[in-house]
Amino acid sequence: MIVRISGEGQYRLADEALARVNELDNAVVEAAQAGDEARFQATFGDLLALVRSQGEELPEDDLSTSDVILPPPDTTVEEAAGTFTGEGLIPD
Amino acid sequence: MAGLGGRMSTVIKAKVSKILDRAEDPAETLDYSYQKQLESLQNVKKGIADVVTAKKRLQMQSSKLEDSVVKLDTQARQALAQGNEELARTALERKNVAQTELQSLDSQISELEAQQQRLTDSEKQLRAKIEAFRTKKEVIKAQYSAAEAQVRISEAATGVGEQMADVGLAMQRAVDKTEDMKARADAVSELEAAGTFEDLTQLGTGEDDIDRQLRELSSKSAVDDDLAKLKAEIGQGTAAPNQLGAGESAVDGTAEEAEAPAGAEEAK
What we know:
The structure holds 2 protein chains of 2 kinds. By secondary structure, chain A is an alpha+beta fold. In chain A, about 45% of the residues lie in helices and about 15% in strands. Chain A has one domain. A 4-stranded mixed sheet of chain A has the order 3-2-1-4, with helices on one face. In chain A, helix 1 (about 15-35) packs antiparallel against helix 2 (about 35-55). By secondary structure, chain B is mostly helical. Chain B is built from 6 helices and no strands. Chain B has helices at about 5-20, 25-80, 85-145, 145-195, 210-235, 250-265. In chain B, helix 2 (about 25-80) packs antiparallel against helix 3 (about 85-145). The longest helix of chain B has about 60 residues, at about 85-145. At the A-B interface, helix 1 and strand 4 of A face helix 1, helix 3 and helix 4 of B.
């Protein structure tokens, strides 16, 4: 599985890591929807740390497509919440 | 994955399809994709230049404000030395506003610096991917049938397309931040235009009584300064009531340093 951290790079993760990634991702979503900045930063930080530590960074000239794309590390809770309403992070 | 990553992936992929779903035959896809990639790279370079320009602008504002803080501090000391507490308070109040603005500007400059670094990294990544794509398309052209080429080109182009979309997002964020900071810099300019951070002695038209008094004091202080320095040079007299008058030379600075320890001993 290939995960991109937006604005940073791509990482190849073993499929076994997927469950943990999903778990953390759900926690991030909960925090974002609750508008809980502290919890969002903590869980999102954990998610990024997991990808970086478990993943193998792909070289810059790799042309693989990502299976999952995570928002940029400096995403705010407002931006994250906005991605669910179609606003915020990515303007359409 | 239905969470944040899923939502993000869906949007990015939609963008990639929009970039790529134009051409039908492989050769056209190649040319079109490659051309799009080069355009995208140019945009990134332009985006970086914009951020650098915005940063320089804030840095200029910041150094002006630093000057103002020093000036206003000097004015406050001068006023206090003359026993005019009201004037000193006015100068200190303005200094305070300038300092608050300065802190805010400095943190925004660091933020722009981080944006610039991120964009520079993104540009490097994108350039590497475009170069890889260029190499790959030559191989694909030479080795595969039209049908196979279409599939493989799509794969490679999607990889670069994803990077392009991602860099586009980073640029958008940087531009948004830059806009915010431009507005901020404009606000500081307005304060400056209003004379808030100006040298209180240098105000032209529209100066109030306090300004005028302070200006008079300042020039008077300069004379007192000169006198005090002269006394110090001759080796007698006490330290000047204030040592931050205009028109100091390097020699003046040395004289002040020399007299400091003597003053400290007197205090004991």
